[in-house]
Amino acid sequence: xxxxxxxxxxxxxxxxxxxxxxxxxxxxxxxxxxxxxxxxxxxxxxxxxxxxxxxxxxxxxxxxxxxxxxxxxxxxxxxxxxxxxxxxxxxxxxxxxxxxxxxxxxxxxxxxxxxxxxxxxxxxxxxxxxxxxxxxxxxxxxxxxxxxxxxxxxxxxxxxxxxxxxxxxxxxxxxxxxxxxxxxxxxxxxxxxxxxxxxxxxxxxxxxxxxxxxxxxxxxxxxxxxxxxxxxxxxxxxxxxxxxxxxxxxxxxxxxxxxxxxxxxxxxxxxxxxxxxxxxxxxxxxxxx
Length: 289
What we know:
Number of helices: 11
Order of helices and strands: HEEEHEEHHEEEEHHHHHHH
Structural class: alpha+beta
Keywords: ATP-binding, Kinase, Nucleotide-binding, Serine/threonine-protein kinase, Transferase
Oligomer: single chain
GO molecular function: ATP binding; protein serine/threonine kinase activity
Organism: Cinchona calisaya
CATH superfamily of the largest domain: Transferase(Phosphotransferase) domain 1
Strand content: 15-25%
Number of strands: 9
Strand order of the largest sheet: 1-2-3-5-4
Protein name: Protein kinase domain-containing protein
CATH topology of the largest domain: Transferase(Phosphotransferase), domain 1
Radius of gyration: 20 Å
Helix content: 25-40%
InterPro entries: CDPK_Ser/Thr_kinases, Kinase-like_dom_sf, Prot_kinase_dom, Protein_kinase_ATP_BS, Ser/Thr_kinase_AS
């Protein structure tokens, strides 16, 4: 690790591992405050211009977005010959994927406690001309104070002066139909993805399903949004209305982040109760990471 990094931080145990690097816990040499240190091996992406761009793009976007209470904060960036090291705030309170898998379904008030800070983070991104492009439960983290932090900006893209962007980016269950269809698109792809996250929290399964990526894409392109009675019988009409406005194939009718935040369901706090799973029913959470 770089000499400067080792002066500023004491690198401790490994806490995660990804395709291009390792995440360590690190402590400030001055305050002993804990952080997460993401060390990316640049040699693994030397021959891939797309991955290399994502690597440097992530640090740049995070610096633009910080500080924000609901966006993972970046503190320092160090680079040596072989590695790029990014110091970010430590989130060791699990991610939303783990919580959905454990809870199966959320009550409406519980779902709102996730959606409000998530949509505030997305609105912050959009106000700065940044589309996240990979909103999914795995990228929604919680710290030890249970505060939500939107993370993983490697797929983000800048939108300048209302211009559209392109590129098939995202995760099958959550990606918007205009992305799959190869059309140019704007930041509202994040609203679609966040709507899918909300649907999964309330139902325990995704709105568009398939046994393979191609089948999922076909279902997303059809965009036949349904609310099965067994899962949505006790979900409020306001919640379903918001889902329709977020998971709308017609981008012109799809809500913006600010419109989502102003929707009555988000303001009123939801009126649902935690719903028990019926005897003999096994409700699996089908989310693709």
